């Protein structure tokens, strides 16, 4: 047998308290949570089952699989309909379910378990909100991922061999990442996003629009997975952008660096420096309380002044954001986008990726993951930012 | 610009006709499809948007991203609410949506677009049903994946180096697979399943229960992803089970082989032979029209006769199935399980994985992918089935 709760008691209560504070502000009587990422947040492990959180009273962990968990509040079930046997008569009037993630059929099944519940509220934004402000323990795990990821990035120039394709270099980066301890999965909220552990874009392939809502595109190797590398051979004058999954601890950092064989044309060098400048400008300006959209506007205005707008966040197809929260999943809050209503808070962890696509060269720019502290942004991904020469 | 429809005209019409036949049998007037796997099935590519399929009349492809698609029926939208401008007044009374996959909030948004629709039907089982009977073109793609996967499996013994951990060997298998053309993604329907490109189980780690509904478990490297290898060193007397993603074409084969350093104990050898025997027995018996559950019962009865039931499909935790459909996703129809109502049909592609966990040794057994033909099962994964010695 193994203890279900892998979080320290104090850590569990810190997270639970924050979730309950938000429940009270929305007059929600109980939450029923089934999403892997949210279960991991609440317990420190993943199981198949449901976490039932009443606004007061003990939390109940309804487990279907694995079979070997034990601890306070652990109740085994074969099907969700059994949970009312445990919850008893004290059923919630307002019940929060993860409406933005959970399938319609599954929500219907949950609703039928609580026929007397007067209202279903949406627990998805509530959990996204709570998870956006990381605890010191979560920050430590993200920090560790950043240090390990940095180590991998420093080795990338040495993985290059003349004549390599984008795929061949990507495979060596993925191998190096895995041997360094990268868990190899990019957790993304929602069904519609699909991505590799490493995403390598060489030359004009970066200008191929992708269906996915990522900052950069790429044709991919097959129409069934139209994103990322497409077999382009790395040649002089082409940029090599590496955007690699930094999930070493269950908590990710997101980081991009640009490499090149020989030197790139002046326009590409200017755009790359502009990306570094934007990160520095935002890092100097952002504080708890800063509006996310102001950071986007700051970047956009600077790009216009530099005359680089045509290439900013894509060329044939543009992404609608320059940054996003990161943690258990790669698409957390806050979102740094023109219509974002998010406001930066202490403990947010954000990835900033002001990138450019220069026709004939490829993608340039950087991405760093930052912690929002009381005094400003702290960079957690500290590999060299300049364009790095492949040897 | 690029043509949206990557399927040949004839292939598109074959699939569309099958979907419409099922729509008519359920009196559904139109389908609105947004899932990546279903969009890929219907068009041969993935895009962000919606496919609108009326029971008669032209299919409309509402595209949000990428920006460069063209062709008959292609209409660009920024948001789903715009689709009625194109569909016009001929709105469906009974509309099919993917209720088993699509988030509750998204379905709510779709329903609001069709306020006069009298009934929402569930398009998920309909598409699963259609996709379970593969066309000759799909079968060719699966066949190609099988041949490439076989090539990778034959190289696994040569990837082993003394002292390797499960992770280290897994990383080399993943690298080899990717260089052979494996797309590196395991498409799984639903949010709750997470898995690696390759899953390597060495020794007693195979007996660690996992939260995921896979045939075998494994502790994993971190509580955030509790499945697969855990850092066990490969030693004499331990089995090494490799279950690797065979997605080379957008259509997968699923295959498992067991390796060992030196020889395994007699009980493990007996169980491994039992797994091969079960595959052979089922391959000799299964025909279009055979009930899936009868194949499960056949396997279970044979296992009991052999006195191996304690170890069958897991030891501490057991999986509830011995086989599953495979194609664009790894969990397609039919399901070979005790309560399955599925009946085998010509064109089904099924992975059979009667496996055992032997305490002290690890997981043994095989997995093959078979095509259901008019005259019986044809194996598409033809690497040697015996336990293979690591060199």
Keywords:
homodimer; 391 residues; alpha/beta; six-stranded mixed sheet; five-stranded antiparallel sheet; 9 helices; 31% helix; elongated
Written account of the structure:
Two copies of one chain form a homodimer. Helices cover 31% and strands 22% of the residues of chain A. Chain A is an alpha/beta fold. In chain A, the strands form five sheets. Chain A has a six-stranded mixed sheet. In chain A, strands 13-12-14-17-18 form a five-stranded antiparallel sheet. In chain A, helix 6 crosses helix 7 and helix 8 (266-285) packs antiparallel against helix 9. Chain A is elongated.
Which pair of chains forms the biggest interface, and how many residues does each contribute?
Answer: A-B, 65 and 64 residues
User: What fraction of the residues of chain A are assigned to beta strands by DSSP?
Assistant: 15-25%
Q: How much helical structure, as a percent, in the residues of chain A?
A: 25-40%
Return the string of H and E elements of chain A. EHEHEEEEHEHEHHHEEEHHEEEEEEEE
Shape of chain A: elongated
The poorly predicted ranges of chain A are: none
Number of helices of chain A: 9
Q: What is the arithmetic mean of pLDDT of chain A?
A: 96
Count the E strands of chain A. 19
Oligomer: homodimer
Radius of gyration of chain A: 22 Å
Q: How would a textbook summarize the main sheet of chain A? A: 6 strands, mixed
What is the distance, rounded to the nearest whole angstrom, between the alpha carbons of the first and last residues of chain A? Answer: 51 Å
Q: Taking strands numbered 1, 2, ... along the chain, how are they ordered across the largest sheet of chain A? A: 6-4-3-2-7-8
What structural category do the secondary elements of chain A indicate?
alpha/beta
């Amino acid at each position: 047998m193994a203890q279900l709760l892998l979080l320290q008691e104090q850590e569990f209560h810190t997270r639970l308290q924050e979730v309950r504070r938000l429940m009270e502000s929305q007059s929600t009587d109980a939450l029923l949570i089934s999403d892997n990422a949210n279960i991991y947040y609440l317990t420190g492990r993943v199981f198949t089952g449901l976490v039932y959180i009443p606004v007061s009273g003990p939390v109940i962990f309804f487990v279907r699989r694995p079979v070997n968990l034990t601890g306070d509040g652990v109740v085994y079930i074969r099907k969700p309909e059994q949970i009312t046997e445990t919850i008893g008569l004290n059923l919630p009037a307002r019940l929060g379910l993860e409406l933005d993630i959970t399938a319609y059929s599954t929500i219907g099944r949950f609703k039928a378990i609580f026929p007397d519940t007067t209202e279903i509220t949406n627990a998805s934004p509530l959990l996204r909100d709570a998870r956006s402000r990381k605890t010191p323990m979560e920050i430590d795990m993200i920090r560790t991922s950043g240090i390990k990821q940095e180590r991998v990035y420093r080795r990338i120039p040495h993985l290059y061999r003349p004549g390599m394709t984008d795929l061949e270099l990507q495979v060596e980066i993925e191998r190096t990442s895995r041997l360094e301890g990268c868990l190899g999965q990019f957790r993304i909220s929602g069904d519609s996003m699909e991505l590799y552990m490493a995403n390598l874009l060489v030359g004009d392939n970066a200008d191929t629009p992708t269906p996915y809502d990522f900052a950069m595109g790429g044709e991919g190797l097959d129409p069934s997975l139209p994103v990322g590398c497409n077999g382009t051979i790395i040649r002089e004058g082409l940029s090599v952008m590496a955007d690699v999954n930094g999930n070493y601890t269950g908590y990710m950092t997101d980081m991009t660096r640009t490499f090149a064989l020989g030197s790139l044309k002046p326009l590409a060098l200017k755009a790359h420096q502009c990306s570094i400048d934007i990160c520095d400008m935002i890092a100097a300006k952002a504080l708890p309380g800063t509006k996310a959209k102001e950071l986007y506007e700051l970047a956009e205005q600077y790009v216009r002044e530099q005359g680089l707008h045509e290439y900013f966040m894509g060329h044939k197809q543009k992404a609608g954001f320059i940054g996003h929260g990161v943690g258990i999943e790669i698409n957390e809050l806050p979102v740094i986008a023109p219509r974002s209503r998010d406001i930066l808070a202490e403990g947010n962890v954000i990835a900033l990726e002001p990138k450019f696509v220069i026709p004939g060269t490829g993608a340039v720019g950087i991405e760093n993951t930052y912690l929002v502290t009381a005094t400003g942004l702290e960079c957690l991904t500290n590999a060299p930012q300049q364009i790095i020469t492949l040897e």
